[in-house]
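Obj: model holo form, ligand = pyridoxal-5'-phosphate.
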Amino acid sequence: MSNGSNRSLSERLHTLAFNLWWTWNPQAQEIFRELSPLTWERSIHSAVEVLRQISPQELAARLNDPDFKERVCSVLGEFELYMQEEKTWASQHVPHLKGPVAYFSAEFGLHESLPIYSGGLGVLSGDHTKSASDLGLPFIGISLFYSHGYFQQHIGPDGWQQEHYPAYRPEHLPLEVVKTPEGAPLLNSVEIGHSTVHFRAWRVRVGRATIYLLDTNLPENDHHYQGLTAYVYGGNIDTRVGQEIVLGIGGVRLLRSLGIHPSVYHMNEGHSAFLTLELLREELRSGKDLVQAKKSVASRCVFTTHTPVPAGHDRFSSELLLYALGTFWSGLGLSHEELLRYGRVNPEDQGELFSMTVLALRMSRAANGVSELHGCISREMWADLFPRMRIQEVPIGHITNGVHTPSWATLKAHDFWNRRLGFDWTEKLLDRAYWSKIEEDGLATDEELWALRYVLRRDLVEFVRCRLREQYTHLETDATFFADHALSPDALTICFARRFAAYKRAPLVFQDLDRLIPLINDAKRPVQFIFAGKAHPRDNEGKGFIQRIHEITRHPQLIGKVIFLENHDMNLARHLIAGADVWLNTPRRPLEASGTSGQKVVIHGGLNLSIMDGWWREAYNGFNGWAIGGDASEPDPEVQDRKDFENLFRTLTEEVIPEFYTRNEQGIPERWIRRIRNAMRVLIPVYNTERMVAEYVKRYSSPT
Ligand SMILES: *Cc1c(COP(=O)(O)O)cnc(C)c1O
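Output (holo structure tokens):
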């Protein structure tokens, strides 16, 4: 083997490390992990960091191992084939798309090693991007580079959440600075108040898609603005409006400076809605009058709303908005009043705050909620914006969220399905007939499915024990003992992990502790709970919920049986969704617009136990999991909480626990396995982002 061929192999490997394609291809991850297991762990699974830490000599030597080299070549071959593929879903279904889709989102959850997301909204954006790539859709994401990311969570001895913000250096991340043809960093700027704020952009490659992250951390800027993009949803309301100007207006300017003219601007939530004002500016400058200009902007914009309560939407006072956008707006020759009207439900109401959602709705040709129920709620919520229409006619539809299944399937799940379905199962996510095989005999026996559940539950238990050793050191004297005896690989394992927003009601299941303790401690039919999640730094109610659960984990009868794991991120999420027998979801209806975490468990044989809200309200069929309560809502939240707890408790004691522990002679819970098969058949081919992105594409390409 010549050095020359090794060098080029090494170059190809570097190209792969900078393309997040590896995040949904476990064989690729294995290669980076194998190169340096410790760096891989410490960098939270960063391929770029592994290659940074390995010398060229070592890499060359390792690649001279024929077995390793063969696997590297095979992965690189697959990657390069994927990148060059011309016959894609998009080439067949939307060959006429004139320019790429530009997808704007305040956060992208692509991988744990790139912590620029806070929760479900970001993970959805990341999964959307990956599926756009898989489908071959020309696609560009726009977001911000948060150099301090979202916080690292630590729970103090009193159970109160503490936040730490490590600084992330771009050179340790899969980022490349965007340069001018002359090779200097490409700079653009926006006006905020009376200042000009410069920004650069970082390129992230996600398969065939690209994301640009805007970053104001430049010496050219006032000190104050250097940190504008440092924290995910950081700072105060001034920071928020500034970040949103960079995202929306700056995002469009970046695209122009790269010569990119998207056919569609997709606003994922209202944070980016200022982009419509920049498009409006362009149209006015080209000589159109205001009516034509607005029409032209709306013909290119679509909007996805995620928030079913008015208070959850970004709103700014007139003073703040006019201060922040004043200079920008003056350039347009329109009155300030004109600007304010775009953000008000009732344009004449001078007391109304400026709503980013209203701006987005007014300036888009199509809008949607993220589940059937959320579509309904959104039409009611925004009916006043469309005064001459009946509620059913309000032009807000719905596209139910999904997940990027290949990213969420763990290595063991990939192996399991590769062996039974063939390696191309990840390309069959839109094929419902294909997945019906799982309910037929022969593909995977009950024994094999039950063994898979055991493998994944055991993995989770051991992962939790390792985590608890670190977590307990500052809490308990006999930390190691407690950590090593936490949880049982035989017990029914119920998990809850997501942001600790109050409406998600994490502690609901503990409402009547006296009735729950005997359930958990039943020697023949034990139940164990694992919780994880971050509360927003300013959300004291959410932090109170963490504290409550932390207190329960220390109850003498519950130690080692109810666990709270610190620092929820995509890595922790992946362990939990794989190991959970039951995924618990207890939002206060109808506040969970969709929810996606429950969709991630299905490929691993997990079952959902959820309030009839968001995606579950349309996915539940009576057998593919369990519903908590029905469609009715109580006006008094306390009454609702009590009813939901009673329903949850009843379903647990009458259905979930007995079914898990009713075993045949082989020790297998037959009815449970039948539920798993049904869930897999009906949920996998629907609640994925390929189906979701394909639906968006129909919306993008439909005439105005
Ligand atoms: C999937 C995911 C979520 C979304 O959870 P919901 O139940 O939909 O709120 C949040 N955080 C992380 C890290 C996730 O992976």
